[in-house]
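The protein record quoted in full:
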Amino acid sequence: MQIVLFVNNRIDMLRNEIVKNWLPRYTGLQLEEFGEYIILTNFKNYVTNFAEMLDVEIRGEDKPMQSATKDKITIIDFSMGSPMAATIMDLLTAVMPKAILFLGKTGSIKDSIKVGEYLLPIAAIRGEGTSNDYFPIEVPALPAFNMQKAISTTIRDYGRDYWTGTVFTTNRRVWEHDEEFKNYLKKIRCTAVDMETATLFSVGFYNRIPTGALLLVSDQPMLPDGIKTEKSDKKVTAQYSKEHLCIGIDALNQLINKGITVKHLKFDYNE
C-alpha cells in the first residue's frame, strides 16, 4: 500500500510540474498573473473586446493562447475543438481557479431556436471522444449548478430570455451533409451541437474545477440556408458577441462580489 501511495504521489508531483511549466508557455502569463476566475472562449475577438472594454493589454500574442486579465478575471482564447479544450482545462490545474466559464458559439438543432439567442446548457453529450480519456462513457457531462444559476440571473438582468437543453459535442467539423448523423441528432433530442462543451464539463469535473457555459446560437445547421459561413459568422459576431461577453463578465462578478462558492456539492469534488 505504501508503495502504491508513493507512486501515485510521484505521478501527481510530475503532473503538477508539467502544467506549471506549460501554462505560461502556452499563454505568456506567469502563474501569479492569472485571475481566480477564468473565462474561456475560442474567438480572439472576445479577448480583444475584453481588453478594450476593461482597458488592459492582451498577453501572449506570440503564443498559442492569447489572454487578458482584469482584477480577478482572466479571459483565454484556447483555440477550437475538444483536444484543445481538454488541454487548457488540464493546464489550468496549475492555478486551480475558483470557477471557469465557457463563452462559446453553438449550432441550434431546433428550428425554434434562432440565431442570436442564448443557450444555457444543463448537460452535454460526450460524442467527441476526448473525454473518454478521463471518465467511462456512462459518466455524464454536467456544469456546476451555481455557475449556471449565476449566469441565468445575469441574463435576466439584461432583459434577455434563454433556452436550456442538452448540447451534443462532436469532433466532426463538417457534418452538415450527413443525413444519417442529422437524423441521429434529432433522435436523441439534443438542443444544439458544438465541439467543446462536453469536454470542458468532463475535464472540469475530473480536475475538480467548477465549470459552466453560456452558448450563443450562431447558426442553424439543420436548415439548408442556416449553415454557418464566414459572412454569417461575422454578422453574428458584430451583433451579439459584446453582449455575450458582458453577461459572462457580470455573471462572474456576481459570484465574486457576493462571495458565492460554486463548489456547492462537496461530494462532487472530494474523495
Remarks:
- The longest strand covers residues 99-108.
